[in-house]
Amino acid sequence: MALIALLGGWMIMQALVLDLVASQFYNDVIIGIALLALGGYNYYRRADEKFTSIAAASLAALLELWLIAAPFMFSADGGATETGNDFGFWDDILVGLAAAILGVYSAFKARDHREDMRRATPN
Prior knowledge:
It is elongated, with a radius of gyration of 16 Å. Helix 2 (about 20-45) packs antiparallel against helix 3. It is mainly alpha-helical. Helices cover about 80% and strands about 0% of the residues. The protein has four helices and no strands. It has one domain (about 1-120).
């Protein structure tokens, strides 16, 4: 989940650096903040020797699915506004794919870890 937090930071930074239209800018900043918070929360839980939150990992994956879809909705052919930067368009899609994969993987690993701990704990 630390990687998801880093991807969230990247989303905020690229939104500030690139020339994006307002809708894409705010979308990237909001998603970036959410990913930073979710990734940081799960990183804190792991550092405190607790289980990774399956809900936080799943929510991160869902947010990334939105991040993949959003550039198409903001594009000239599919949405209300035109994206201002081609790099920003593809960056959203690639970061969205990477973080969605990480979020799903993290959620499955956390679920498997919890099931293993339940089996190992005597009743």
